[in-house]
Amino acid sequence: MSTEPVVAELVERRVILPDQRIDAFHAPAIAVSARAGQVLQVLLADDEGLVVRRAFAINTVDPSTGVVSVHVAGPARADALAHLRVGDRAPLAGPFGRPFEVDPRTTHILLIAEGAAIGRLRLLADEALREGRQVTVLLGAQSARDVYPSTLLPDEVEYVVATVDGSLGHPGSVADLVPQYEAWADQTFAAGSPALLGKLAALSASRLTRMGVAKLGRRRAAAKVDPPGSPSARRKSFLQVVVELDVACAAATCLGCVVDGHAGLLRACREGPVFAATELSLETVA
Amino acid sequence: MKARRRVVTALDRSGGRGPAWPAPPRKARPVPGLQSPVSRPRLSGSGEAVAAPVPSVPLDLSVDLGSGLFLRNPILVASGALGYGIEAEDDLAPERIGALVTRGTTLRGRTGNPTPRMARTPSGLLNAIGLHNPGLAAVLERFAEQWARWPLPVILNLAADNVGEFAEMARRLEGVPGIAGVELNLSCPNANRGGTLFALEADSAAAVTTAVRRATDLPLLVKLSPAAPDPRAVARAVADSGADAISAVNTLPGLVLAADRSRPALGLAYGGLSGPALRPIALRVVHEIATSVRIPVVAMGGVTTLSDVLDFLAVGAQAVAVGTAAIGDPGLPARLADELEDECQARGLSSHLSLIGTAQGHRPGNPSARGAEYRP
Questions:
Q1: Are residues A181 and A80 in the same domain?
Q2: Which of the listed residues A128, A157, A225, B373 has the most CB atoms within 10 Å of its CB?
Q3: Residues 6 or more apart whose Cβ sits within 8 Å of residue B298
Q4: Residue A77 to chain B, least CA–CA distance (Å)
């Protein structure tokens, strides 16, 4: 796989929260092919000529204008794109990684995220609405000042918030909200801390026992074991998770992005970053 | 002692001393949108850009690393940068570079260190991959056949925690097509010495080199650590024990903290520092080693530009490997090879040999182990 980059102009920068913003690039080649769950890389060269690749979750894409936006989060001292100004051009590569897979029969989609990890799910809301599905977003944050602005989500999305300090929405963890929506959802997609993903994986694993809900997938193929990373493994899964993917190479050579899977280590850049929850040992996802 | 045999790879079937490769078309492209330091115009003494003169002599950049291992040019890909090469073949341009050194490979497969395994540092990278590899047998089964068809020599980097395992792996490589040589990663803990790295002690390094030399006739490179108290003593020991060439240097242990300073950034806490941040140290060690041994030195440590290549040649390296910079930019080694060719032609040189060792005039009387502030 070639990782050849394209040069893209930074066309818009929008600060949405402290230490979080949306950067939009004009990159038509990426915008037409990007799918929810994938990342793109910005190639940056330092004064010594060392080129490093920084990966960012694709936030939105607009194939008609060729604009693709990324969610940038983290403290200012770790902000790799800080030196870019609107109008500057930078090499972008991607999209990388395997995307979310939605079963064609799914009508109700539940998105669960913690904090800035919502950036990894945002594009899925657009894709699902475009295909006529109903979308509910459950977001967990430390406090009201960390909550992703509702104005950045499409109007059709139901948006439910939980804050740890109780300053907005449900007081407590976002995981507390899940049982109210689990029965409604046909498929669930999550991004967040290993602790959250572990809790959700446990809920998902017991879903059949508790609710008698049939597994997804064609009946004949339901018993078939799908190879890790295959689209069918994700499509059949009630819960798909996306792990953070900030990889140095994107060619599966550096092995810096492995995650613990039941069948051994998996490379997030090659077999992920979206996985069926059943593929991972979620207590060790970092 | 066994008779040395000539290693024949897909690119070298001439049978003579010097290879005669057809010049392949240049494939490696610069990263668009980045100011490539390697493409800076050369400056004359007055600071004005000079046009490259038309070459008047045929250019020979080939390198002899011993035991019949000839490279078409002195630019290699360092171990760990591009895995086993196959994964990055599209970007690598294998027909343009001297050799590829593979990821560290152990006798049995290893799953490596806990994640996160990589952290960025000022002008560098800290990594603790932990020799994640499928094991020697699986590597040979998956890749050797393809390497044999490749137009460049592949040098297999071997790692182990005892002398016997190093020798066993070398023995298993005898007669395997596609393996042009081996490189010993001596920055491994020696289980029989309480975990002290082989590369830190001359006698440990010599013991491994001797055992592997007895086990194989393949060209043998030994990779040394910049953490050694006296790299010259270790280099002399491995040279006297049968190494064909020395690779210098491996990474240097370091620490990076997570953004919130609550823990180390890496799952293992410590990692190996590489990239331009390591370069002055690598340059010093290569200088020390190249003035101490008569076998070729393959230099590595933060190479990102032609200027870095020329620096390492100037302190005595016969060849230069690109590591960390190739992770983000796999086409860089091929571009550097092209740049070096252009540089030699612009200077009217018939080979790069006259660029080697030009900065060795000042030969220090004391090893750096005595400290930079040492005055006799």
A1: no
A2: A128
A3: B65, B76, B221, B245, B246, B247, B248, B317, B318, B319, B320, B321
A4: 8
Contact B82 A258 (CB under 8 A): no
| B27 close to A (CB below 8 A) | no
Tell me how many residue pairs between chain A and chain B have CB atoms under 8 A apart.
129
Instruction: Indicate which of A20, A40, A48, A260 best probes the interface with B, i.e. most B CBs within 10 Å of its own CB.
Output: A48
Contact A46 B111 (CB under 8 A): no
Q: Are residues A134 and A238 in the same domain?
A: yes
Tell me how many degrees the CA angle A190-A211-A203 measures, rounded to the nearest 5. 30
Asked if B70 and A127 touch (Cβ cutoff 8 Å), the reply is: no
Q: Is residue A221 one of the residues assigned to a domain?
A: yes
Domain identity same for A150 and A68: no
CB contacts of B279 in chain A (<8 Å) are 48
Record: contact B83-A45, CB cut-off 8 A: no
Residues from chain B contacting residue A4 (CB–CB below 8 Å): 29, 91
Query: Which residues on chain A are in Cβ contact (under 8 Å) with B38?
Result: 49
For residue B56, name the pLDDT band (cuts at 50, 70, 90).
Answer: low
Helix (H, G, I), strand (E, B) or coil at B191: helix
Which residue in A41, A75, A266 sits closest to B328, CA to CA?
A41
Q: Does A3 touch chain B (CB under 8 A)?
A: yes
Domains by residue range for chain B, with CATH: 54-108+135-251+273-362 (3.20.20.70)
Interval B4-21: pLDDT, tens: 444 434 444 333 334 434
- Pick the closest to residue A126 from A163, A105, A147, A100 (CA basis): A100
What's B2's DSSP letter? Answer: P
The DSSP secondary structure of A144-209, one letter per residue, reads GGGSPPGGGS-TTSEEEEEETTSSSSEES-GGGGHHHHHTT-SEEEEES-HHHHHHHHHHHHTHHH
Residues 6+ apart with CB under 8 A from B32: A5, A6, A7, A91
Find the residue in B nearest to A1 (Cα): B90
Q: Which residues of B touch A256 (CB under 8 A)?
A: 116-118, 127, 129
H or E segment and range at residue B313: helix B306-314
Question: A82 in contact with B at a CB cutoff of 8 Å?
Answer: no
- Which domain does A77 fall in, by range? 6-96
In this prediction, residue B370 has a pLDDT band, given cuts at 50, 70 and 90, of: low
Kindly give the confidence (pLDDT) of every residue in chain A, 286 residues in length, as a single tens digit, with 9 standing for 90 and above.
Answer: 445 789 999 999 999 998 899 999 999 999 999 999 999 989 888 888 888 888 898 999 999 999 999 999 877 666 778 889 999 999 999 898 899 999 898 999 999 999 999 999 999 999 999 999 999 999 999 999 999 999 999 999 999 999 999 999 999 999 999 988 988 899 999 999 888 998 888 888 877 667 666 666 555 555 667 776 678 878 878 889 998 877 677 677 888 888 888 777 888 888 888 998 888 887 654 4
pLDDT recorded at residue A51:
85
Backbone φ, ψ for residue A37 (5° rounding): 100, -20
Residue in the structure block whose two tokens are 């979620």: A282
